[in-house]
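I can't quite decide. Please look over this sequence plus structure tokens:

:::
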Amino acid sequence: MQIVQQLLFVVALGVTAWLISKRVGIIKKTIQLGKAEKRTDRPNERLATMLRVAFAQKKMFDRPVVGLMHFVIYAGFLLINVEVLEIVLDGIFGTHRLFAPILGGFYPVLINFFEFLAVGVLTVCVIFLIRRNITKVERLQPERHRELNGWPVLDANTILGIEIVLMMAILSMNAADSILQERGVEHYHPVGGFFFSGFLTPLFAGLSDGALVAVERIAWWAHILGIFGFALYVTYSKHLHIFLAFPNTYFANLTPKGEMSNMPDITKEVKIMLGLEQPDATEAPAEIGRFGAKDVTDLSWKNLMDAYSCTECGRCTAACPANLTGKKLSPRKIMMDTRDRLEDVGKNMQANGGEFKDDGKSLLGDYILEEEILACTTCNACVQECPVLINPLEIILQLRRYKIMDEAQAPGSWNAMFNNLETNQAPWKFSPGDRFNWADNLKAND
């Protein structure tokens, strides 16, 4: 019977690893569709940023209570995986609590610490479910934010439910295990008492040895298969940020917020026109394929990684002045729409042997509306608020640049401003020579 369990476990592990690697390969390919962008400068500063923001969760603690609860789940996810390592090795080798003889008296201390984390994670997940579905935190409600309708709400509740089930499985497994140890059942060697799961032992105390073994095995399998399923599910979920937060913060933009990058080819042409730079006689004029971005392939690979890293927390949208005044713009929706487009592109590539075939759609128009990108005030509030350093503004600016420079479709008021900038070097329709008339009036009044 033991060898059968080992074979089943190895098969489950292998299938899970294959499915995850396949999914990761698709995500990698879609991110690589983005344009090249250098983000490897200042490595020490980048490493410090990643450790501070992704590892230490610094920006989450801008709201201390929520930050602390999120940290409990985060710490539980990282540290409980040590026990998962033991479970995986037990599954492969047919052992039981493999690390117990190695760690000796420290083993029950470690398991009790993991149980403490499990109870913490379980409690916080319940609180988060209450915040989403009963007290109804405004930024998490689909009635107010249309991008949350359907799958996003189900996804968030599903992941919290899975985490609760996984934590209950750990505690149930340890509770049944403790009783079996006390009874001296073969294969369940005494390793010490477990505090939190001890509260569950009265539920199982009246069961026979065979029933207890069944409970322990069911809980063991439920926990490890749940972990495997969770690991695969995460690659389809917003919770992919659990892994991508680290590279995303490492490759974050280190330039000051508000600095907008120009198109190098356009900048060069303008400098030549102003006499600030001389054209290279040996170099053929650069051919500019497209101004800005119409689809995901026009964005940079970092913009696409941002989309996959989005936590859908809504802090960006809650801080957006355009959204607060009732306009359609939601920075969270910009990132979710970009990810949705990437998902569709990935499915297209899968169906066509790894190559993308034109499907007649584009990010701008079919996913993100013109009205949304024109509402942006470029205030950088969304960039400032993001806990994993995502920059929705870069995508908005690229889409807007395409709309105005490539399609020549700017609002009338914007065209008036552009004309004034061209003729008067200022947004206002006054001659540069009259710019200081207001000061002359002040002198006259003196």
Residues 173 and 216 are 5 Å apart (CA to CA).
